[in-house]
Amino acid sequence: MFEIGAKIDAGWSSDNKQKKKSKSSEDALPPEKHTLKIRLEKRRGKWVTLCSPFRLPREEKSRLLSSLKKELGCGGTFKEETLELQGKRSEELRQALKQRGFSKTN
């Protein structure tokens, strides 16, 4: 005979929002070991400065972003391992990162 319906204990789960481990917490590096690439992009007619890859824990990324935004006087965000700042800020960003111990930037 055939049974209609799913068996609950057959490996199916309704919990599809399982927490994923972030790579940044596992692969966290000290600032002097980072090799960062800074580049400019134009989005919708405006410049965006991108810097990646940052391998830092979430709390450190948040503190770094906050201090950089205050120092450079611009908006910005972290998207995964990439720092995005509004405007052409490559030289100012390079100097600010060097002061914070990120010595290897292109």
TrEMBL record:
Residues 41-101 form the SUI1 domain. The keyword Protein biosynthesis applies. InterPro entries: SUI1, SUI1_arc_bac, SUI1_dom_sf. GO terms for molecular function: translation initiation factor activity. GO terms for biological process: regulation of translation. It holds the Pfam family SUI1. This is Translation initiation factor SUI1. The keyword Electron transport does not apply. Residues 1-33 are annotated as: Disordered. Residues 23-33 have a biased composition (Basic and acidic residues). It comes from Nitratifractor salsuginis (strain DSM 16511 / JCM 12458 / E9I37-1). Keywords: Initiation factor, Protein biosynthesis, Translation regulation.
